[in-house]
Amino acid sequence: MNVHHLELFYHVAKHGGVSAAARQMPYGIQQPAISAQILQLEDSLGVTLYQRRPFQLTPQGMELYTFIAPFFDGLAEMGQKLRGGADQRLRIAAPEIVQSDYLPLLLRQIRIRMPEFHFNLMTARIIEIERLLLDQQIDIGLAAVSGKCAEGVRHRELTRLPMQLLVAANSRLTTATQILEQDRIRHSLITLPAGEPVCRLFQAELQKRKIGWNPSYELSSLDLVSRYVAEGYGVGLTLAAPARRWPKGVRALPLEDFPEVVFCALWAGRLSPTGELFVDEAAALARSLAAVPV
To answer: For residue 114, what is the DSSP state?
Structure first.
């Protein structure tokens, strides 16, 4: 018998069906995948383990569940015991703007609440974060989100950040309207890669306003965007993050009436107590930063 198939059957039996199991699984997996793998388990055993509608374990299913339940029920406790107590480690992924402007403050607050807190950190954007969560390679992601998250990924909104344009400090431009009202915008646009939520949101708003302005340069970080702007290569698209201070050589122009970019904490399955603390502190810090005048 495949141990992973047994684990899926354990959750289905425990929660009373495939749909409930998918919602309660400690990692993301879609309902069709659960059903298909349970069928493989039944084929290998040559028995039906439960009736589908309404859900009810068969005698063979009850016998198997009774046998495997003590093992899977005790896994979390055994993991904590081997770690020497409650699990106080998280694997976190976030893009560079979160790592530079927000995460150091958040990690400091977590350490105050939980002195033994440890973490692993990697750089990733929303598409990568969703994949890493579903593959159980990380516990929590922090990123900008546009549209729906991938199936199996849960999220909590932390804050909303306005979009801005960056211009060189010596530019004659004083408002974003001076750029957007041009019949044909002659300034080069410098942005993050086109797939980033801020870029998608910006281009969608331009389309609504029937404005054509495609990126001339797509760079890997907002720090690079500001550097290229300072060097006179064009106008940059960025975010008005409360903790961010722009370097010398650039000025920010607010984008009036443009939608804000939503930043979220993301996870798959059920959060550990450490994960719940992390998300609560992340939301509290976001609220406090938003209340501080820039």
So the answer is: -
pLDDT tens digits along 8-41: 999 999 989 988 888 777 666 788 889 999 999 9
Phi, psi of 215 (to 5 degrees): -65, 140
DSSP designation for 94 = E
Number of domains in the chain: 3
Q: Which residue has the tokens 């699984």?
A: 25
Residues 110 and 174 in one domain: no
Instruction: For residues 18 and 157, give the distance between their C-alpha atoms in angstroms, rounded to a whole number.
Output: 28
Nearest to 275 by CA among 150, 132, 73, 89: 89
> Containing domain of residue 56, as a range?
3-73
Q: Across residues 88-97, what is the average pLDDT?
A: 88
Confidence (pTM): 0.66
Q: What is the CATH number of the domain that holds 32?
A: 1.10.10.10
Could you write out the three-class secondary structure of 48-72?
CCEECCCCEECHHHHHHHHHHHHHH
Residues 204 and 86 in one domain: no
Are residues 34 and 114 located together in one domain of the fold? no
Beta bridge partners of 91: 120
Contacts 24+ apart (CB under 8 A), 53-59: 55/16, 55/17, 57/13
pLDDT of res. 294: 44
pLDDT, one tens digit per residue, over 93-117 is: 998 888 887 899 999 999 998 888 8
- CA 235 to chain centroid: 28
What pLDDT is recorded for position 83? 56
- In whole angstroms, give the CA distance from residue 89 to residue 277: 12
- Same domain? 109 vs 155: yes
Does 232 score more than 90 pLDDT?
yes
Q: Verify that 207 and 185 share a domain, yes or no.
A: yes
**Are 39 and 91 contained in the same domain?**
no
Helix axes 31-45, 3-15, angle to 10 degrees: 110
Question: How large is the greatest C-alpha to C-alpha distance in the chain, in angstroms?
Answer: 80
